Q: What sequence folds into this?
């Protein structure tokens, strides 16, 4: 069974305004209290925690989601002194690196916790759903690129194959991604195997990491394209990626918010929170509650602040 597309991360702010506007009454203090009273007790307890307690691992060291699949900390622009810093290609590269880091942090969170999950427990289904969200975000992101963004860039650049290397890299790990998708969607929680999950992630992870890093340089190469035209095609691709109506806001939005790291420096500069803290808090209450158990495995809280992983693998794994 194929998972539905997720909403693209760059559309979270717009979607957040839509969701919170529709849910404003239920998001008021009285509305939230009434809504929370209708939730199961386990959900009420989960929602009352701003973040899970810190867990120690590796002989007292806290385990975070920055390894083994390395995050992107620079776009490579400092090695290109002739690059026009005000060209939209740089902003596009930074935005894409931020999205890619969200994926890499989710991948690391899954890899570093998969062996701690026992079969047929309340946590098993939640962990499988967390990985379903990871798959859906990767698939949605690459579909947006191949169906909308890359063809549009090809038109404005005058070279239809300008982004072909990235499509080729997508195909390079297609089998590994499909194997991962089949396991996380078809496995009964009673039959879950942390060892098998780890093996799947070890097959997929290095190829995905390599691609997510490589793509940033190809975006910087677009500085030869008209800056405003490039900005226009990315905006068009954003709108197209969230217009098919198949998104699950209760999964897509919390997953994106709790897997990004707003403190991570890129080219020595922070990325401003997107959306802001107020919207994030409202989204936590309006769409975060339904799968509240899933976000325990996320590497950040709803504000995008990184936190130690809650269920790290055994230290001898």
A:
């Amino acid at each position: 069974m194929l998972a539905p597309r997720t909403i693209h991360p760059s559309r979270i702010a717009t979607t957040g305004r839509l969701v919170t506007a529709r849910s404003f009454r239920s998001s008021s203090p009285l509305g939230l209290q009434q809504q929370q009273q209708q939730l199961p007790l386990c959900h009420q307890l989960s929602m009352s925690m701003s973040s899970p307690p810190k867990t120690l691992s590796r002989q007292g060291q806290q385990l975070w989601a920055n390894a083994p699949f390395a995050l992107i900390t620079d776009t490579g622009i400092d090695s290109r002194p002739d690059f026009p810093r005000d060209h939209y290609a740089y902003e596009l590269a930074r935005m894409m690196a931020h999205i890619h880091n969200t994926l890499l942090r989710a991948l690391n969170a899954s890899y570093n916790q998969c062996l701690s999950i026992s079969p047929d427990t309340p946590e098993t289904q939640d962990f499988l759903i967390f990985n379903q969200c990871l798959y859906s975000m990767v698939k949605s992101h690459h579909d947006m690129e191949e169906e909308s963004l890359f063809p549009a860039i090809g038109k404005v650049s005058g070279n239809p194959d300008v982004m072909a290397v990235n499509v080729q890299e997508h195909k390079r790990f297609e089998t590994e991604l499909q194997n991962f998708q089949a396991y996380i969607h078809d496995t009964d929680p009673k039959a879950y195997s942390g060892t098998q999950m780890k093996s799947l992630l070890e097959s997929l992870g290095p190829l995905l990491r390599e691609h997510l890093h490589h793509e940033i340089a190809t975006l910087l190469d677009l500085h030869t394209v008209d800056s405003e035209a490039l900005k226009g095609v990315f905006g068009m691709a954003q709108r197209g990626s969230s217009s098919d109506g198949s998104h699950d806001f209760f999964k897509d939005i919390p997953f994106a918010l709790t897997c990004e790291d707003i403190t991570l420096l890129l080219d020595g500069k922070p990325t401003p929170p997107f959306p802001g803290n107020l919207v994030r808090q409202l989204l936590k209450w309006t769409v975060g509650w339904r799968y509240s158990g899933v976000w325990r495995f996320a590497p950040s809280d709803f504000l995008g602040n990184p936190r130690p992983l809650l269920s790290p693998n055994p230290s001898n794994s």
About this structure: The first strand starts at residue 56 and ends at 57.
